[in-house]
Amino acid sequence: xxxxxxxxxxxxxxxxxxxxxxxxxxxxxxxxxxxxxxxxxxxxxxxxxxxxxxxxxxxxxxxxxxxxxxxxxxxxxxxxxxxxxxxxxxxxxxxxxxxxxxxxxxxxxxxxxxxxxxxxxxxxxxxxxxxxxxxxxxxxxxxxxxxxxxxxxxxxxxxxxxxxxxxxxxxxxxxxxx
Amino acid sequence: xxxxxxxxxxxxxxxxxxxxxxxxxxxxxxxxxxxxxxxxxxxxxxxxxxxxxxxxxxxxxxxxxxxxxxxxxxxxxxxxxxxxxxxxxxxxxxxxxxxxxxxxxxxxxxxx
Lengths: 178, 112
Fold this sequence. Notes:
The structure holds two protein chains of two kinds.
Chain A: H1 2-21, H2 25-45, H3 49-74, H4 82-85, H5 90-110, H6 125-133, H7 141-164, H8 174-177
Helix pairs in contact in A: 1-2, 2-3
Chain B: H1 2-9, H2 14-34, H3 38-62, H4 69-99
């Protein structure tokens, strides 16, 4: 357990740092998928294998590919100097983030977690399904949230199409021109 | 030797997962504050969402009375994050089309 934990924690945190500090945007996206893989490993350790499968499918698969498409459409070749990828708030931002991280870590570690032990998670996928539908003692609000989320996804897809649609007569059509 | 193996196989305390989640959240917040590229800011926001998900699932597995509800919330958070990525990248695409840049400090149309 401890070996797997150290491996996954270092993979997750080093990849997360690399996302922030990498000078190449594509490298940032690939490091981000590595960080998501580490989190998926944590989900397996925490008795949520179905959620780990969702994580790999949605984050490592779909979100990374969508972001890579976004990079493909929006980035020009950029100057590779570290000074130019960060704005003027570099050090104040570092202090704010360090403060937030140290505060959260301190609060969460001084709390007395006696009486907690692993193994209460919904290991079976059927249990997770019952939780999502609010059955068998799970909070009943989940059945409402499930429906709201599906409507939200539909609205988001329509909104993405509407916002990013090319208006007629605007911009250049590179496929025809080149 | 047996004792060493037992130490390796012992269950981890809850604080371990929570501290990893907190540090990951702080790294994501740092990136979202300092990077100029809007797409990288999206990636850092995804990192923060994942850190919160990790904490939720850790609580769901460790707290006896939670009933595993944190995993259900994590599924909902993943769906919301996917919707956010779709709309956010569409906005970045629309901005790039009109301004030819996605650097957040050069987009100052609404600056007073």
